[in-house]
Amino acid sequence: MNARLYYWQRMTAGLMVPLIAVHLVTMIYAIGNGLSAAEILGRTQGSLIWGLFYGGFVVAASVHAAIGVRTVIGEWFGLRGKVQNAFAVIFCVVLLGLGGRAVVAVVM
Amino acid sequence: MTKTLQVSIWRGGADGDYQSFEVPAKANQTVLDVVTWVQRHADATLAYRFACRVGMCGSCAMMVNGEPRWTCRSHVSSVIRDGELKLAPLANLPVIRDLTVDMTTFFDKWQRAEARFHPSKTRHDEVPAIKPDTPARKMADAAVECINCGVCYAACDTVRWNGDYLGPAALNRAWTLVNDERDAGAKQRLAAVSGTGGCYNCHSHQSCQVFCPKALNPTRSIAGLKRAGLAAKS
Amino acid sequence: MSGPRTHFLWRAAMLHRISGVLLAIFLPLHFLMLGLAIRGADALDGALAWTETVPVKIAEFGLVFLLAVHLAGGLRILVLENFQWRDGQKTLAAAAIGVSFIVAMLFGLRVL
Predict the structure, then answer these.
(1) Which of A90, B145, C33, C74 lies at 20 to 30 Å from C91 by C-alpha?
(2) Does residue C1 lie in a domain region?
(3) Cβ-proximal residues to C104 (8 Å cutoff; 6+ apart), any chain
(4) A20, part of any domain
């Protein structure tokens, strides 16, 4: 971990504090009405706000999780250097891809 | 019948083993007393380090029942577990023999962290008047009593998991110098502590603070370095 | 894996790390499930029906706890690193875990 990675991990963490708070409240509220596609899509479909909210959430979470996982595979699994960084980049790209697809799926 | 302690002590190098001794129990006995008794009365070949025996020199640290401690000021009564004492060489450092470890890496990292004073004046300049109650001096003073015993280094998980990590002691000392207005090495020091093995690897477990025999708080110092490092970059 | 006596703040740090790893594993699965809606609402409904069982609901409760505890623990670290040091980190860590559990219970009571 160096200053740059640290900065981006803490920065995305800070960005996600309000996002997670909203997400948790939404989940606690939504789960009471029973979980169904109609319930979810009724809220998110066609909504620019939810699109931006979850889109930003996906980007922040992908960067944050990738840097975090990078530290764990370095410290607990002994992977270092190019392999460690490649693993982190791939994981970030996978999350961005799947996450972006999920946002599109529920918003469009 | 004198009471005795069951003591197992690591013997040999990295692939050695524990050897058991029965040591007479005495009132107010320290772990260093126990080790010294073994070396003098049971086995003269036992290798261990001590010097001042009063908590100033930092020589006597070792693992006591799995925890790093300074043995000269650890009373047996406070560290004994189920009537047993298990003594091993300080963790995270190569074993030389028995209870002695090679401290080279510990002190190399001290240098790599630029945890040494860079003078800015000569003897011909006026002596700077350092006020003891400025915020910076207070922060330096709170961290400056380190005796380089290596206990924090042995306690630190990040040191164990990351060979590059400079460690709590070196970074703690670097922090005292960041706060020393006489020091001229700020730029290279912040670069040294912000790099690959630097302060940003610290996960704030606070094991260093829990075990420091001088009640220092390297986690707090390292948090200060994290802020200073980011401020320098912006 | 454990270091010198696994004191409370060490345990809090491990909880933070493990919750992060588990969330990182869960996230792609979560995205895959939501992505089913790309095929239409029915595809998503099919998958959601699977989540109606008690073991899954307990897992959901667990995930909410992991998210809350990772957030709360992370907030403690963000404060520790960016502001003046405050003592009482053990109390703060305990409070973070406590509040997270309450949040998870709020979810748990509604999901069952």
Answers:
(1) B145
(2) no
(3) C61, C62, C64, C65, C68
(4) no
